UniProtKB/TrEMBL annotation:
InterPro entries: NAD(P)-bd_dom (IPR016040), NAD(P)-bd_dom_sf (IPR036291), NmrA-type_oxidoreductase (IPR052718). CDD domains: TMR_SDR_a. It holds the Pfam family NAD_binding_10. This is NAD(P)-dependent oxidoreductase. It comes from Alloyangia pacifica. The lineage of its organism: Bacteria, Pseudomonadati, Pseudomonadota, Alphaproteobacteria, Rhodobacterales. Residues 11-188 form the NAD(P)-binding domain.
Length: 293
């Protein structure tokens, strides 16, 4: 497997990866674009779209080396397996170095090295340090919060008549997942940035969860209040709703961090990279909510 691949996107069957692939195909139609997946059953659909598909899990060094052969630029989308990610990403970085990948961009988290969040940043910082020690040319895409992270809770808020959280009056500078995908494409297809370049990426607008609930109320045509809870109570509520314990704890910690300003930023790098303001959060909310008539 030595054919040259201009760009390889990991996590290609995930939500962010799928958006990056489609936008990259539009931005670089003549490039050879690779998609890395861990499930063989995901191969056919991506090949049908014209992508070069390679199969490897983040924790399989031999498979990763085979998959990375001939790759020029790699987008390492962070693993979804919280608690295992630092080790998995280290294996990806080692494989990329061994086979001579020319450039790696990594999706980290906003202000990773100074964030008040406690669950998510640690593994991102470990990955950033591994990249710095690798000798590879790399850049860090420190993605802020996805607006969709809160939109996915809108249905439950409508069902129960309240939006719950633990963010207090903290402001959240989120952007649509597609905006972050566009930024990744811009970095991959542009001139290779200086080694270790950090892009702090946040939405053009910000909101509190009370403002988010007010917008949801307008869509629903009835009052949906925001109910602020302690981090522990919010985690327990999420667990009670059926979320896995690590996910519930991560979301509750993220809200607690938001209360301390951890999801807020006035940095305009994201809108500069994509050449426009980020998608209005109210538009993403409206598109993601179904209100029964």
């Amino acid at each position: 497997m030595s054919d040259t691949v201009d760009y390889l996107i990991t996590g290609a069957s995930g939500q962010l990866g799928a958006l990056v692939l489609q936008q990259l195909k539009a931005a670089a139609p003549d490039a050879t674009i690779g998609a890395l997946v861990r499930r063989p059953e995901a191969v056919a659909a991506l090949e049908a779209q014209g992508f070069t598909v390679r199969v490897a899990a983040y924790d399989d060094p031999a498979a990763l080396e085979t998959a990375f052969a001939g790759v020029e630029k790699l987008l390492l989308i962070s693993s979804s397996e919280v608690g295992k990610r630092a080790d998995q990403h280290a294996k990806v970085i080692d494989a990329a170095k061994k086979v001579g990948v020319r450039f790696v961009a990594y999706t980290s988290i906003l202000n990773a090295d100074s964030s008040p969040l406690t669950v998510l940043p640690g593994e991102h910082v470990a990955t950033e340090r591994a990249l710095a020690a690798s000798g590879l040319d790399y850049a860090l895409l420190r993605n802020g919060w996805y607006t969709e992270n809160y939109v996915m809770g809108a249905g439950a808020a409508l069902e129960h008549g309240a939006l719950i959280g633990a963010a207090g009056e903290g402001r959240i500078s989120s952007a649509a997942r597609a905006d972050y995908a566009a930024a990744a494409v811009a970095v991959l297809t542009g001139a290779t940035p200086a080694r270790g370049t950090i892009y702090e990426l946040a939405g053009t607008e910000s909101y509190t969860l009370a403002e988010f609930a007010a917008a949801l109320s307008e869509i629903a045509g009835r009052e949906i209040p925001y109910v602020n809870m302690s981090e522990a109570d919010y985690a327990a509520a999420l667990e009670g709703a059926g979320l896995p314990v690590p996910v519930a704890q991560m979301l509750a910690d993220s809200d607690n961090g938001a209360a301390q300003g951890g999801l807020f930023s006035e940095n305009t790098t994201l809108s500069t990279l994509i050449g426009r303001p980020t998608t209005p959060w109210k538009d993403t909310l409206a598109a993601g909510v179904t209100v029964e008539s």
